[in-house]
């Protein structure tokens, strides 16, 4: 199959610091926020989405004049956290931090009870992440070609941050639909847990977002096989891309998206979105994000909302053409 995952192009966004929205015509109420703001993270601690949420919470608190606290609600590739926030009071005090895995989960299982376009309002996207394929050091491969060849001779298993996550679909698209080989999927609650699975020999391969894997690759605890961006990641320049490995139709990033309940008043949503993008433009945050392996791009709410709708349609086509079914 010669198809390109179009997520990267749709969500490239603008350079951090250039995507600040215009001042809203309406002003958020002076009393907002009137109590602590919760950032409900759609994955357990230790992954890229969690890292972004915690970095941003620390900076947003003094800007907004209230504590901003992180609450992890992992599971179902973001659907659990998404439903929690969708059902919260639409007053701006409950914010979802999720990835596009939540979109994939809706496409693969429409019965999750979450309709993202209907139930949530996008307020900002920032710091997208590459996906990386890693193996245990004892696995006798050094390249993606080696891994494909080995998977033709023996049954391999791989861990991902969950059924319907973007990393899960990367492997299914790359191996099953493109290379015509299959590995057994072992879903984990998050990226950190999938990497632990490789370290403990529970699985031979893991496909996760880049930031939680950087230190493990540089220390030699796992082997970096390929990243899914068109160019090599600055944090791991020695790891080749899937394009270099002969799979140019697999190019994808995982964004970090911020959402509020759909009925949240626009002035409140705009105030939160402006705070998020202001934090994203801070030099110390940009430096930290770069060191962790995130890309330095962002997208304001209205543009991000449109991109979410477009991406839902794209993932639907990919899932259908690759014949990927829920396990």
Number of helices: 12
Query: In CATH terms, what is the fold-level topology of the largest domain?
Result: D-Maltodextrin-Binding Protein, domain 2
Q: Output the radius of gyration.
A: 19 Å
Give a quick account of the main beta sheet: strands, pairing sense, barrel closure.
Answer: 11 strands, mixed
Supply the CATH class of the largest domain.
Answer: Alpha Beta
Secondary-structure element series:
HEEHEHEHHEHEHEHEHEEHHEH
Structural domain count? 2
The coarse silhouette is globular
CATH architecture of the largest domain: 3-Layer(aba) Sandwich
Pick out the low-confidence regions.
1-24
Measure the end-to-end span: 23 Å
E-strand count: 11
Helix content: 25-40%
Q: CATH superfamily of the largest domain, called what?
A: Bordetella uptake gene, domain 1
Q: Please, what is the average pLDDT?
A: 88
Main structural class: alpha/beta
**Strand residues, percent:** 15-25%
């Amino acid at each position: 199959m010669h198809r390109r995952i179009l997520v990267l192009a749709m969500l490239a966004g603008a350079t951090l610091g250039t995507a600040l929205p215009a001042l809203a015509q309406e002003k958020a109420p002076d009393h907002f926020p009137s109590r602590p703001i919760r950032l409900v993270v759609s994955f357990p601690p230790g992954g890229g989405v969690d890292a972004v949420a915690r970095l941003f919470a620390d900076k947003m608190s003094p800007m907004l004049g209230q504590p901003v606290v992180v609450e992890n609600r992992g599971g179902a590739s973001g659907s659990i956290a998404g439903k929690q926030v969708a059902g919260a009071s639409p007053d701006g005090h409950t914010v979802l931090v999720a990835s596009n895995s939540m979109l994939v989960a809706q496409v693969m299982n429409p019965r999750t009870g979450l309709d993202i376009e209907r139930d949530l309002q996008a307020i900002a996207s920032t710091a997208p992440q590459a996906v990386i394929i890693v193996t245990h050091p004892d696995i006798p491969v050094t390249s993606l070609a080696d891994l494909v060849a080995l998977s033709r001779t023996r049954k391999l298993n791989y861990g991902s941050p969950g059924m319907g996550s973007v990393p899960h679909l990367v492997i299914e698209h790359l191996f099953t639909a493109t290379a015509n080989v299959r590995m057994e999927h072992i879903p984990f609650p998050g990226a950190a847990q999938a990497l632990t699975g490789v370290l403990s020999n529970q699985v031979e391969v893991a496909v996760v977002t880049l930031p939680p894997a950087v230190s493990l690759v540089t220390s030699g605890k796992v082997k970096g096989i390929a990243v899914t961006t068109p160019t090599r990641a600055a944090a791991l320049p020695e790891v080749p891309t899937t394009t270099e490995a002969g799979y140019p139709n697999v190019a994808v990033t995982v964004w970090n998206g911020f959402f509020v309940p759909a009925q949240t008043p626009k002035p409140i949503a705009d105030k939160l979105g402006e705070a998020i993008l202001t934090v994203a433009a801070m030099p110390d945050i940009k430096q930290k994000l770069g060191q962790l392996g995130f890309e330095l791009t962002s997208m304001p709410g209205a543009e991000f909302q449109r991109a979410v709708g477009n991406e839902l349609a794209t993932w639907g086509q990919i899932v259908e053409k690759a014949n990927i079914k829920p396990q």
